[in-house]
Amino acid sequence: MRFDVNTKALLVAGMTAVAALAASDAALAQAARDQIRVVGSSTVYPFTTTVAERFSQTGSFKAPIVESTGTGGGMKLFCGGVGTQHPDMTNASRRITKSEFEQCAANGVKEIVEIKVGFDGLSVAMKKGGQKVNLKREEIWLALAAKVPVNGQLADNPYKTWKQINPSLPDWKIEVMGPPPTSGTRDSFVELVMDVGCKKFPEINAITDSKARSAACGKIREDGAFIEAGENDNLIVQRLASGQTGLMGVFGYSFLEENMDKLQGVLVDGVEADFETISSGKYPVSRPLFVYAKKAHIGVVPGIKEFMAEYVSDRSMGEGGYLEKKGLVAMPKAELQKVRSEVTGLVNLAM
Amino acid sequence: MTDMAAEPNQLAAMPADQGIHMTDKAKRRLKARYAAERRFRLIGMAAILFSLAALAVLLFTILGNGFTAFRQTHVQLEIQFEPDQIAPVGTTDTAKLMQGNYGALITKSLQQRFPEASSRSNRRALEALMSAGAEVQLARMVADDPSLLGQTRKVWLPAHSNVDVFVKGQVDTTAAEADRRIKDNQLGWINALKATGDLELRFNTRFFTGADSREPELVGVWGGVVGSFYTLLVTLAVAFPLGIMAAIYLEEFAPKNRWTEIIEVNINNLAAVPSIVYGLLGLAVFIGFFGMPRSAPFVGGLVLALMSLPVIIIAARAALRAVPPSIRQAALGLGASPLQAVLHHVLPLAMPGILTGTIIAMAHALGETAPLLMIGMVAFIVDVPATPVDAATVLPVQIFMWADSAERGFVEKTSAAIIVLLVFLLLMNLAAILLRKKFERRW
Known about the structure:
The complex is a heterodimer. Chain A is α/β, with parallel strands linked by helices.
């Protein structure tokens, strides 16, 4: 009967589909990888991808695949274990923490090579053409913290204009656009600006409980003076350029560098953000960037050693190298030498 | 109502030819009802006008920003393919030919053109006019045709993105020199090249044939298009048969009881589940449990298939329900088995509706990024994928990543990629409309 044939055909088709799926799983899982896989920070992503592209153009290896998962997420994947289903390298916009290092070791990732890439400056910027201002970090803290000292007591932030904070500052409404709490850039901003700025006030230092103190330092006001602008820094750039004078934004230095025709930086503690001041550490709001590589994968996935060598080479990281053109702030020469010898010698990270 | 009931005496006292509908009050009410209708129409038209205006603004900005990306600044240089810098004449080994020092050839050609730029900083500024992709293009040329060694050719090479956005006027060309990425000396060279016709906007083929890059002048959407194609292929291959089978069973064969009701409610619920949830599911099941590779269109296709399955089932059931029962009864009356009745008569008649629903589900899947984030398809991938298990991204992910890049040149590329995506969506929706128009049956 026709009817039977059709049912059978359907059944067979279904079974075949399931079998094919299962078979392809097995095949996929066992296939060796011939491409390096990198995960991690979105701040390091533009640099690692640039190196990956150049690496594939010149060498005889396929271009590494670079995912942008955030520093924490990248560490979790990286420390997941040894084997080709785990990534070979991870980008980080801060150093690996002790607990992450231990987590790695617990999963068998015992030998890690640390590549210090360079620095990333966090710039505070505004529309071009206004008065050039110089903000101290304690002033930024006073402008943006949720609670600030008023007559010796911590109270809801009363400041509406910069002039109220310091009479020498212009009479602009306090309006700062910045990243949301999920962003690594926000973490850095809190750590490098807010946490430092708040230490200048006896009312904060009087708090003995360290947790309550760091909460008081890092909590950003939510009454509209600080505008959370999402993860897209280009959006902040556009809104600054079309907004009123006095509207400020916080984002990575490479975005300021790329948009110098529209924006100008705000001096922080009297220092202008540029390649030199960030590299030398004079500009206070900067952080080092890292890439971590799994030693156990060298020789298993082709090209890891060569990729690392390309990363630390003169034409990429050196003065005038292609990473500098992408906005990376390179390390001073002596430090670069040290990093290079450690990376090419595959020195293990110890904590 | 209330005032009518309150004044019965007045009604009775009215002349016969006027009646209840001709009183002043009734006329006022009538006027108010017409006014309410006019207001409603106006509000409705305003709503449509508003959405049309929003669409127009969107299209206008995207087209305005994006169209320039289809043409790219190129510079014509006279390149001497010196064997000293590449490999001895007669070499045919591709790897060796690719490793030549092509940057030196470009620098030399530029310097011959502008001998005054001899200092170190001037030479740097001169080199900065050209894209990093120019060297790769020359290397490919020689690898494809080794007989070029020792010859001199005029070649159109891509200019750096800074030059491109400057020539297109996308940066403030009147800003002070310190704030411009193109300095005064470079401006002079650009103008000199322009004057002799050696610098012009040429059709950007790379944009349609290349994959992702960190240099805005070298990016292309082809990698994303192929990735999207493989992903949708897998989605279609999985979701379409499964969806139809589930719909046929539920609509034609399943008994109507509590269990099928529960299943029905769940399918309707699944259609409304946020797509990121399917991504998490894919991460846990396909990558975590089955050990499939990250970033593969195969996995992305499976995830999107799960996502579009409920939509396809609902559309297919609606289409099957729309086939009149008389068709089934006639088939059964002539001795067809229930399965024959469904497969030979009901399903073909329901097919246009099912296909329309499927295409719309596919179009939805084409624009999806959130679930792909979880399974590693939001990644920088330089190579165009050759199979569904190679690492790949999809078009919307490509747009998302370009929108997040610092380089100014990516602004127009982002809009141009959106144009490409919109064209694909438009084509798919057009196909759905055509199918419906061509095969639609009315009973």
